[in-house]
């Protein structure tokens, strides 16, 4: 009913609506045919015995372990996290004591918080590139 009233009152808006609907239908048809091609491709590979989900490399399990530990650490209650950080501080204390005798003058630019955040971001980006590369390689 409202489409008929739109057709009567404003022919230009009705023509624009009709054009948009035709474009949406064409896009949906193209998407459907592309999905059909994908289904045929994956079905043919599965019939030939190509089952990627069954071939899990050790790198995959290592990545899952690191991801689980990282997420698990932030899902722990604050008191448990603080006690874990205290334990790490006790374990790392002898290392820091030995580093105190080294000349670390070259690290002066990293004293600001912004530079530390920048360095951590570069490390994380390199880590992500490594994960993506290992995923694409296998």
Molecular structure report:
It is a single chain. The protein has 138 residues and is an all-alpha fold. It is 80% helix and 0% strand. It is built from five helices and no strands. The chain has helices at residues 2-9, 11-47, 58-75, 78-99, 113-137. It is elongated and about 85 Å long. It starts with a helix and ends with a helix.
Short note summarizing the structure:
By secondary structure, the protein is mainly α. It has helices at residues 2-9, 11-47, 58-75, 78-99, 113-137.
Low-confidence stretches: none
Question: Overall 3D geometry?
Answer: elongated
Fraction of residues in β-strands: under 5%
Distinct helical segment count: 5
Radius of gyration: 29 Å
Helix/strand order, N-terminal first = HHHHH
The tally of beta strands, per DSSP, is: 0
Helix content: over 70%
Quickly give the structural class.
mainly alpha
Overall average pLDDT: 84
Major β-sheet annotation = none
User: N- to C-terminal separation?
Assistant: 57 Å
């Amino acid at each position: 009913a409202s489409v008929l009233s739109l057709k009567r009152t404003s022919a230009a808006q009705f023509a624009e609506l009709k054009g948009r609907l035709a474009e949406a239908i064409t896009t949906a048809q193209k998407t459907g045919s592309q999905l059909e091609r994908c289904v045929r491709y994956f079905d043919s590979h599965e019939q030939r015995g190509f089952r990627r989900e069954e071939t899990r490399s050790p790198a995959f399990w290592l990545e899952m372990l690191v991801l689980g530990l990282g997420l698990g650490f932030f899902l722990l209650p604050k008191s448990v996290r603080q006690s874990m950080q205290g334990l790490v501080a006790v374990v790392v204390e002898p290392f820091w004591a030995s580093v105190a005798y080294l000349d670390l003058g070259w690290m002066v630019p990293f004293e600001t918080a912004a530079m530390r955040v920048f360095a951590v971001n570069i490390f994380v980006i390199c880590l992500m590139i490594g994960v993506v590369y290992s995923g694409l390689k296998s």
